[in-house]
Design brief:
Radius of gyration of chain A: 14 Å
Radius of gyration of chain B: 20 Å
Number of helices of chain B: 14
Shape of chain B: globular
Largest sheet of chain A: 4 strands, antiparallel
Strand order of the largest sheet of chain A: 1-2-5-8
Strand content of chain B: 15-25%
Largest sheet of chain B: 7 strands, parallel
Order of helices and strands of chain B: EEEHEHEHEHHEEHEHHHHEEHEEHEHH
Number of helices of chain A: 1
Distance between the termini of chain B: 30 Å
Strand content of chain A: 25-35%
Oligomer: heterodimer
Helix content of chain B: 25-40%
Structural class of chain B: alpha/beta
Structural class of chain A: mainly beta
Distance between the termini of chain A: 27 Å
Shape of chain A: globular
Helix content of chain A: under 10%
Number of strands of chain B: 14
Order of helices and strands of chain A: EEEEEEEEEH
Chain lengths: 111, 397
């Protein structure tokens, strides 16, 4: 049974990810999957974290629907994003690598 | 009370603008200079940039130039482009609107063409300003919806709120159009189950399958880098959020750019070209989609954004619905609706849905949107190719 922290949204009972309803700072303690966890990095508003353990290859479920699959094992509370999941249709275009290599130092790459 | 400008085809407009239409990029500067002498609420610029003929481009320009929000049309031609200015002028004339062509090569160059265009518009504007308005029913309204600069909040607040507004409009007999089949990838089966007939359901699935093939060939989904910054990880995730804009009403038809739905109800606009992949990305940016929604008769377009879009459009007002409360606080001047209030417990989905609905109704009673006040009139139209829609796509009488 998933324990829902009020700062996180479970959009459908079958989902294995939770959505941040506000920006959560690094170091904050959150309740996920019956345990208390400390965020190691900031979780921006609207981003997802694992609501339970997700194995590599498993479908990521949000809104009760598959939105892609895990490319690595994901621990409860871990940020779920382009670094550990992928589309079943077209690859996701992002600029994180470009930003990490050439972007301003103040804008650190996610995750 | 909603009022509109009656047109010869039976539709009513909630605006009465003169459009200046350039028929090739070479005439764009002259068109812009002509319009710059007037208020942006009175004279607006649209155009087709290419020099090669294109049936889609011709039809889009005809549908835009005879849109119910348009009262007069000035065509600006260089003179040697392939666009059929005679056919466009005839279509506008047949719609009962004043139309005039300025051909730069015949008028004597840039300055004399600008002067000739301004002169003609000055003659038209008093009649446009004095045109009578009649009461307009909700069932006469056509509303489109699009999302752009989406993020992880779009599918939770702004898009479902737009969907609630759509549900209310459909119940009142209005016509609602959602679109961007490239952002419905992954939702095709749940969407098809909402079709009023099995045959239409198959058409909806086929439209999304076509989009998936098209984007796969091009190597990119309908997904921008900023979507990832905003927490969206895949096109399927973006799609699930975008799909929420359609609300929960039955889907009664499928149209293509320039098709005006025959009666009230909820329609999907298929924006991905037919046939082999030609001419590049289906819609190169949000304004390409807005132009297509307007060509289908939309009096107003609901635009849901999370990252923060600023755009507007010529012809029809764009209502900016901000899904992300952080973005709203940063860019409030560009937004009409604070849907992020839902995330912060300051409003419910139903309340924001009603706010969107009532705001659209107020647009037909003199209210202007943020993008109208700020003068945003971004416009883009490029090459595409479409087959006509099949018989299963429109509701039976």
């Amino acid at each position: 049974m998933i324990t829902i922290d009020s700062r996180l949204l479970l959009l459908d009972p079958s989902d294995n990810v939770l959505v941040a309803r506000a920006r959560l700072a690094a170091g904050e303690t959150i309740a996920v999957d019956g345990a208390l966890l400390t965020l190691t990095a900031e979780l921006p508003l609207g981003h997802k974290l694992a609501g339970r353990r997700i194995a590599a290859g498993e479908k990521i479920l949000k809104y009760g629907a598959p939105i892609g699959s895990a490319t690595a094992d994901i621990a409860p509370g871990e940020h779920v994003h382009v670094h550990n999941m992928k589309s079943e249709y077209t690859p996701t275009h992002h600029l994180y690598d470009a930003r990490a290599n050439g972007g301003p130092a103040s804008r650190k790459a996610l995750p | 009370m909603m009022t509109g400008y009656p047109r010869a085809d039976g539709r009513k407009g909630i605006r009465n603008v003169a459009v200046v239409a350039y028929l090739v990029e070479c005439a764009h500067h002259v068109a812009r200079e002509i319009a710059q002498g007037f208020r942006s609420s009175e004279v607006q610029v649209i155009g087709f940039p290419g020099c090669f003929p294109n049936a889609y481009g011709q039809r889009m320009m005809e549908q835009l130039a005879t849109h119910p929000n348009v009262g007069a049309v000035l065509l600006v031609s260089l003179g040697c482009e392939s666009f059929n200015r005679y056919a466009l002028a005839e279509a506008v004339r047949a719609s009962g609107r004043p139309v005039h062509i300025v051909t730069i090569q015949e008028t004597g160059g840039t300055r004399s063409s600008i002067a000739a265009g301004r002169r003609w518009l000055e003659e038209q504007l008093p009649a446009l300003a004095a045109a009578p308005r009649l009461p307009m029913a909700l069932s006469e309204l056509v509303i489109g919806t699009v999302c752009g600069g989406s993020d992880g909040t779009s599918g939770i607040t702004g898009n479902p709120a737009a969907g609630r507004a759509f549900d209310q409009f459909v119940a009142e007999g209005a016509t609602c159009i959602f679109e961007e089949t490239g952002e419905l990838i992954g939702c095709e089966h749940i969407m098809a189950a909402r079709a009023v007939t099995l045959e239409l359901g198959r058409e909806l699935e086929a439209a999304v399958a076509k989009a998936a093939r098209y984007y796969a060939t091009l190597g990119y989904g309908s997904f921008a880098a900023g979507n990832a910054d905003g927490g969206l990880s895949t096109i399927e995730e973006k799609s699930m959020g975008a799909y929420a804009k359609s609300g929960a009403s039955p889907i009664c038809g499928l149209v293509k750019p320039g098709d005006v739905p025959p009666r009230g109800g909820l329609y999907l606009l298929d924006v991905v070209p037919d046939g082999e992949v030609r001419f590049g990305f289906p819609n190169i940016n949000d304004n390409a989609e807005i132009a297509e929604l307007i060509a289908c008769g939309s009096h107003a377009v609901l635009f849901v954004t999370g990252r923060g879009s600023v755009v507007g459009s010529p012809i029809s007002p764009v209502v900016k619905i901000c899904a992300n409360p952080e973005t709203y606080r940063r860019m409030a001047e560009d937004m009409d609706v604070d849907a992020g209030a839902i995330l912060e417990g300051r409003a419910t989905l139903d309340e924001v849905g009603r706010e969107i609905h009532d705001l659209v109704v107020a647009l037909a009673d003199g209210r202007r949107t943020a993008s109208e006040e700020l003068g945003h009139q971004e416009f883009v139209l490029t090459y595409k190719a479409f087959e006509p829609i099949g018989p299963a796509c429109l509701p039976a009488r």
